[in-house]
C-alpha cells in the first residue's frame, strides 16, 4: 500500500509539473508577443524563476525519465519539422553552400568555440569541443517564425532554413560522438570516430527515408492509403519510429527524423499526396506539438540553470557568445560560400547569413542532456549555452527585419 501511495503522489506531482510548464509556456508566449521579444527567451527566464534556483515550482530533476523524454522527443520532433520546411527544388540550386555550411561549418564552429573555451575556462579539450558541438548548430524553430514575418529573398531564406535544419542533425551527431568519447573509459581514435560518424549518418538517412515513405504511403490518397484520416497522428509515429529504429541500429536518431521530415515535406516528388483535409489538420496538429516541445525544452533548460554558475561564469560565457557570433560565424560563411559559384552570393547576402545564426532548441536539449548526466564541466556548459541562446536571440532574432532592410535582401 505504501508503494502505491508513493507512486500515486509521484504521478500527481508529475501532472502538476507538466501543467505548470504548460501554463508558464502559454503566459510566456503571450508576454513575448506583447513586448516583441522571442518567446524562447521568456521560456528560459520562466524556467529560471520557477525552477529550483528561485521558487522551486518546476523541479523536473525529480523525474529523470520525463526530463529525458521532453528533451529527446522534443528535439526530434522539431528536427522533423525543420526537415519538412526544406524544399528540394530550391535546395538543389544552393546545395553546395548548404552542404558546406551544415557540415564543414559545424566542425569549424565547434573548433573555434572549443579552442576559445579551452583557453577561457581552462576546460579539458574534450569538454571544450563538446561545448563547441552543442552551440555549433543554428535553430530552425526560431528562424522559421521570424521568416514568416520578414519576407527575405526566397533563395536566401531557403538556404538559411536548410542549413539550420541540416546542421542541427550534424551538430547532434558530433555531440553524440564527443560525449561517447568523454563518458566511455576506453579511448577512441580519430579514424574510428570518423567511421562511426559516417555509419551513423548512413543508417539515419536509410531508416528515415524508409519509415517516412511507409508512413506517407499509408496516409496518402492512393488505394493503399487506408489510414489517411490519421495522417496527423502518423507524423508523430514517424518521428518516434525513425528515431528509435535508427538508434537501435547504431545510427543517428536525429539525422533519421530530419530525413523523414525532408522526405515527407517533398512527398510529391515520390508520387504521393495527402488529402487536403488531412493536410490542413496535420499542419495545425504539428504546430501545436512543436510549440509544446519548444516551450517545454526551454523551460526545462531554464529550471536546470544554476544561478551561482551563471554569476560565476557569466562574463566568460558572454565572451564565448560574442566569439561565436562575431568570429566563428563570419569565418564559416566566408569559407563555405566561397566554393559555390553557381549560387552567386552577393556581399550583402553573405553579410545577412553571417548575422542570422540564432542558437536555440537543439543546443538547449543537448545541454539538458549533459546536465542530467552531470558530465564534468556541466555547470560551465549550462551557463554558456544559456548565455549564448539569450544573446543570439535577443540581439540577432530581434533585429532580423532591420538588418534585412539595411542590406536590401527583402523580397521585392
Automatic annotation (TrEMBL):
<feature type="transmembrane region" description="Helical">
    <location>
        <begin position="317"/>
        <end position="339"/>
    </location>
</feature>
<feature type="transmembrane region" description="Helical">
    <location>
        <begin position="351"/>
        <end position="371"/>
    </location>
</feature>
<dbReference type="GO" id="GO:1902600">
    <property type="term" value="P:proton transmembrane transport"/>
</dbReference>
<feature type="transmembrane region" description="Helical">
    <location>
        <begin position="168"/>
        <end position="185"/>
    </location>
</feature>
<protein>
    <submittedName>
        <fullName>Sodium:proton antiporter</fullName>
    </submittedName>
</protein>
<keyword id="KW-0813">Transport</keyword>
<dbReference type="Pfam" id="PF00999">
    <property type="entry name" value="Na_H_Exchanger"/>
</dbReference>
<keyword id="KW-0406">Ion transport</keyword>
<feature type="transmembrane region" description="Helical">
    <location>
        <begin position="40"/>
        <end position="58"/>
    </location>
</feature>
<feature type="transmembrane region" description="Helical">
    <location>
        <begin position="377"/>
        <end position="397"/>
    </location>
</feature>
<dbReference type="InterPro" id="IPR006153">
    <property type="entry name" value="Cation/H_exchanger_TM"/>
</dbReference>
<feature type="transmembrane region" description="Helical">
    <location>
        <begin position="225"/>
        <end position="243"/>
    </location>
</feature>
<keyword id="KW-1003">Cell membrane</keyword>
<keyword id="KW-1133">Transmembrane helix</keyword>
<feature type="transmembrane region" description="Helical">
    <location>
        <begin position="100"/>
        <end position="121"/>
    </location>
</feature>
<dbReference type="GO" id="GO:0005886">
    <property type="term" value="C:plasma membrane"/>
</dbReference>
<keyword id="KW-0472">Membrane</keyword>
<feature type="domain" description="Cation/H+ exchanger transmembrane">
    <location>
        <begin position="26"/>
        <end position="405"/>
    </location>
</feature>
<dbReference type="GO" id="GO:0015297">
    <property type="term" value="F:antiporter activity"/>
</dbReference>
<feature type="transmembrane region" description="Helical">
    <location>
        <begin position="127"/>
        <end position="147"/>
    </location>
</feature>
<dbReference type="InterPro" id="IPR038770">
    <property type="entry name" value="Na+/solute_symporter_sf"/>
</dbReference>
<feature type="transmembrane region" description="Helical">
    <location>
        <begin position="197"/>
        <end position="218"/>
    </location>
</feature>
<feature type="transmembrane region" description="Helical">
    <location>
        <begin position="14"/>
        <end position="33"/>
    </location>
</feature>
<keyword id="KW-0050">Antiport</keyword>
<keyword id="KW-0812">Transmembrane</keyword>
